[in-house]
Write a structure and sequence with these properties.
Length: 977
């Protein structure tokens, strides 16, 4: 180990060795000598002796302070030895170096330490070298040593602030904390922060609040009006004179700037606020050159990144806006507040002016909203805030006047009539060739389009992110004041009406339309408001209704759009016009899809006579309405009237449009669905096969009509026992719909459900379960899903879970289904019979026979009334009751029901059908339980033979019969295996 006198001994714990060697390296690079255990204590030497020698032979000791340092006995001895030689620290024999987030303890806290915690390497190195160099002590005073006034939050030191603190200042705590954090995280080193945002967003109020909130931490807070260089120089002159830097008669801006730069570079406890600055380029030469304090700049311009940290200030959040208005107005009646906040776009300046108007005129939020609807932006010229020169309108006029590029102004003018929150740039690129020059020449040039957007962003007139533009609603109102609004609206209505493709059957078309739907709605609303191109506006509303209905499945918005279209069309074209009747037809169809059958029937019934009187008995529109009314009858359970109407329509269509007309094929498909419900399967199959052929020849195979026909045909094939054909049809339908629609479309949920139902009927429950869960997931996320469809999915999932033995979850699903149906359907509706039947089966599985009987009987009443006593679906329940009574050992009730069920299924389906096979099985079980072994074995033999032949060895029904045969029939035959 070294024996000569060394400049520094480095004292540290083993966990801080990297810090110790770093300190030693930096000191030695500066010409100092060091002694550090990691380098200088060799293995085999006496550690205590080496440490003792080091403390004697080193001029000074550096203690590397961390939490672990205080826990070591050895380090205590090391620093205490140095402290004992220099207890007053006159010779700096002991130099603590803080490297972690802690405060020195005990005697060490009395010694000035070098603080390296949290610093970057170069700064830490400089601080270390300066800290150990006794010759480099600064000779500047620490300031006035006498008593200084201590300021509290809300009190200001030396300042020139003329604005009073805003007692209504609301929220913004996150931004204020962010400003404070940025200023304090670098140990009070120089920091500049720029608050940018659109006019009226509250940048000045934020800076003012920060000054009052944190000004006590400074020696000086100075407010500088920064709209132009003259005002900045005026603010500097006032400051320089106040601080004694210049005489009162000094006017030379060079002298003033020099004095400011000198003072701001030598002092650090100051805050300068430059309010309402223009661009960085215009302001840069007047900002402090080497500031050691803090700077806040407020500006509408966004391009300040090269100077400091930019914070973009947005409008109030919904909560902040609500709190501000309630506190500002003190109104007890808050009705209409949320609507008013939305109209004003949460803009603080607009809320302040609205509050002042409400207070001065003693009116409600609703009344102010009515006044705004009538007078628009004019009302916001009233009552501008005190000490603020601009109303909402004038603050944006200033920014608008700075837009000199014609194409930028064209884009902004169009934005004034679009959906404020989000305008996809594709709106402009898709319709580029139909826009006016020079904008039309630039929007499809990426560089030139970027220049346009950057200019509008620079003045905080828009926001732009991920190809989407947003603009404040009140700015839209201001722009509309400066242009010929009717001219622009007429142009935009014609633009989307004449040049935007609208094909609901074309997925590519409606994917583009979907991106523009908010813009089209906004244009339609403006056209309606200004009564411009009303006929075209009505078509836009009608198309929007169809899009919301069939593509987005937002039934509430669809109804609103249809109602707007209908109102205009009745007024413009009259109640007898084709346009009016078409909208009524679509609106009635919407009611039907929502299960609002009474409203749908009334609208169709009132429209059909008008249509027939004006357009004749053979018109396409009339026949379409009758077709749709038949579907309402069918959905509401009125099968007889539905069948009558469909047959009437088919006769006319065949006569007028021919037997190969796709128009006819639609009615044939609708009738086939009805025939399936009443178990006339062969007739249904014939109609569907013909309908599929006609439709595929005219429209191709990949559209919703084909998918619907395939679903209907699959159902028929299932009932006829043609299971392979049924599965293929269901899968093809699902494939078509996945290609047509988004993943959350109800028709995909329906296809999933249909395929799952097929698997259920074939006892393939493992295949059915995931399909049903996917269908349910889609259905529950689509608010517009028809309750009947959701109920059916719950129902079938409950059945699957019941078969798999998960009775608790099955009960939950089945009860969800029943409650939905009771809520949305009449008490005697057919769908309720399905809920009752399935709950009956569940309770029978749980041997809760009395409950099961009640459910079965309620279901049977509904089916006998709607379908009659001999319908297969009615017979299903007869069979279930027979099985139930057999389980209850009420054999005299069971036998006639089971015999009736077998006879009826044989009559409808013949022997080679699953329902007949299961009826044979049910009666066979009854005979065995009643000791009529011969009859039982005969029926079992027939059931197992037919099941193996028709359904196959692996089918659940075959396995069930076979298992029972082995466990219960073979013992009677006294055969063992």
């Amino acid at each position: 180990m070294k024996s000569e006198k060394t400049d520094f001994f480095i004292s540290y714990t083993s966990t801080d060795e990297r810090w110790a060697t770093w300190v030693a390296e930096k000191l030695e690079n500066e010409g100092y000598t060091t002694l550090v255990q990691a380098w200088d204590f060799t293995p085999g030497t006496n550690f205590i002796q080496s440490m003792h020698t080091a403390t004697i032979n080193c001029k000074r000791t550096i203690a590397i302070l961390s939490e672990k340092y205080y826990e070591s006995l050895y380090t205590q001895s090391e620093w205490q030895a140095a402290f004992a030689e220099d207890p007053t620290s006159e010779k700096s024999k002991l130099i603590p170096v803080r490297i972690s987030d802690h405060k020195p303890k005990g005697l060490l806290k009395q010694i000035v330490y070098i603080d390296l915690f949290g610093l970057e390497e170069e700064i830490a190195k400089t601080k270390l070298i300066n800290g150990v160099d006794l010759s480099k002590r600064a000779r500047n005073s620490q300031g006035f040593p006498g008593t200084k006034k201590k300021y509290n939050s809300g009190e200001l030191p030396i300042n020139n602030i003329k604005l009073r603190r805003n007692k209504h200042f609301t929220g913004r705590s996150i931004i204020l904390n962010q400003i404070n954090s940025e200023f304090t995280k670098n140990n009070n080193s120089s920091v500049s922060q720029i608050l940018t945002g659109t006019g009226g967003v509250g940048k000045t109020q934020l800076a003012l609040e920060y000054a009052y909130n944190s000004g006590f931490e400074y020696d000086v807070v100075w407010w500088i009006e920064a709209e132009d260089s003259k005002r900045i120089i005026d603010g500097y002159r006032e400051f320089a004179y106040k601080m004694g830097l210049i005489e009162s008669n000094i006017e030379d801006s060079e002298i003033i700037l020099s004095s400011i730069n000198s003072w701001t570079s030598q002092n650090s406890r100051w805050l300068f606020i430059f309010d309402n600055a223009e661009t960085l380029e215009q302001t840069y030469d007047y900002l402090p050159i080497n500031p050691q304090g803090h700077i806040i700049i407020t500006s509408r311009h966004t391009n300040w990144n090269k100077f400091g940290e930019v914070l973009e200030i947005d409008v109030f959040s919904e909560v902040e806006a609500s709190i501000f208005m309630r506190n500002r107005t003190n109104l007890q009646d808050e009705s209409g507040l949320d609507t008013l906040l939305a109209v004003l776009g949460h803009l603080p300046l607009a809320l302040e002016q609205a509050s002042a108007y409400i207070i001065n005129n003693s009116i409600s939020y609703d009344k102010y909203k009515d006044l705004f609807d009538e007078f628009r932006i004019e009302i916001l010229k009233k009552y501008p805030p005190l000490k603020y020169n601009y109303s909402v309108a004038t603050t944006w006029f200033i920014s608008l006047d700075k837009i000199h590029d014609e194409s930028s102004r064209q884009l902004l003018d169009i934005l004034a009539f679009l959906y404020a929150d989000s305008v996809d740039i594709q709106f402009f690129t898709t319709l580029a060739e139909h826009l006016e020059a020079p904008l039309s020449e630039k929007v499809n040039n990426v560089l030139e389009l970027n220049d346009i957007i950057c200019e509008l962003k620079e003045y905080s007139l828009i926001k732009y992110s991920s190809d989407k533009i947003s603009i404040h609603r009140l700015l839209q109102e201001v722009i509309q004041m400066t242009i010929d609004s009717q001219k622009y609206i007429r142009f935009l209505v014609e633009l989307v009406h004449d040049h935007l493709d609208y094909e609901l059957e074309n997925k590519n078309s409606w994917m583009i339309y979907k991106k523009m739907v908010d813009q089209i709605l906004s244009i339609a609303n403006h056209g309606n408001r200004y009564k411009v191109e009303t006929g075209k506006v009505s078509l836009l509303y009608h198309q929007l209704g169809s899009f919301f209905n069939f593509v987005l499945e937002d039934f509430k918005k669809a109804e609103s759009m249809y109602m707007e279209a209908l109102k205009i069309r009745e007024e413009v074209f009259g109640i007898h016009s084709e346009a009016t009747l078409i909208t009524k037809n679509n609106l009635a169809g919407l009611y039907k899809d929502q299960g609002r059958y009474t409203e749908a029937e009334e609208l169709y019934s009132s429209s059909i006579p008008v249509c027939e009187a004006v357009y004749g008995a053979n018109s396409i529109l009339l026949l379409t309405m009758k077709d749709n009314l038949a579907q309402v009858y069918q959905a509401s359970g009125n099968y007889r009237e539905a069948r009558r109407l469909l047959n009437e329509v088919i006769v006319v269509k065949t006569s007028v449009y021919g037997s190969e007309s796709p128009f006819l094929a639609t009615s044939m498909g609708n009738l086939a669905v009805l025939l399936t419900k009443v178990c006339e399967f062969e007739k249904a199959e014939s109609l569907l096969v013909k309908s599929l052929r006609i439709k595929s020849n005219t429209t191709g195979m990949h559209n919703e009509d084909i998918a619907s026909i395939l679903d209907a045909l699959a159902n028929v094939y299932t009932k006829l026992g043609k299971y392979n054909l049924a599965e293929t049809c269901f899968k093809d339908s699902l494939h078509i719909r996945r290609n047509i629609y988004s993943s959350e479309h109800s028709d995909i949920a329906i296809s999933l459900h249909n395929l799952a139902t097929f698997y259920m009927e074939n006892h393939l429950f493992d295949e059915a379960e995931p399909l049903l869960y996917e269908s349910l997931d889609i259905s529950e996320r689509i608010v517009s899903i028809e309750p009947r469809e959701l109920a059916t999915t719950y129902d079938n999932l409950g059945v699957v879970l019941m078969w798999k033995g998960n009775y608790e979850t099955a009960r939950e699903m089945l009860e969800n289904s029943m409650n939905l149906r009771k809520q949305h359907l009449d008490e005697g509706h057919y769908d309720l019979s399905m809920s009752y039947c399935n709950l009956g089966n569940l309770h029978m599985s749980l041997e809760q026979y009395d409950l099961a009987e009640l459910f079965f009987k309620d279901a049977l009443k509904i089916r006998e009334r709607i379908l009659g006593t001999n319908n297969p679906k009615t017979i299903d329940l007869v069979n279930n009751l027979g099985i139930l009574y057999n389980s209850k050992r009420e054999f005299d009730k069971a036998e006639p029901l089971l015999i009736q069920a077998l006879d009826s299924t044989k009559h409808f389906f013949g022997d080679e059908h699953k329902d007949t096979i299961e009826s044979y099985y049910s009666l066979a079980v009854f005979y065995l339980q009643t000791k009529r072994v011969g009859e039982g074995i005969e029926l079992f033999s027939k059931a197992i033979t037919l099941s193996r032949k028709v359904l196959g060895e692996e089918h659940e029904t075959t396995i069930m019969i076979d298992d029972y045969f082995r466990s219960s029939v073979l013992p009677y035959l006294k055969i063992t295996f």
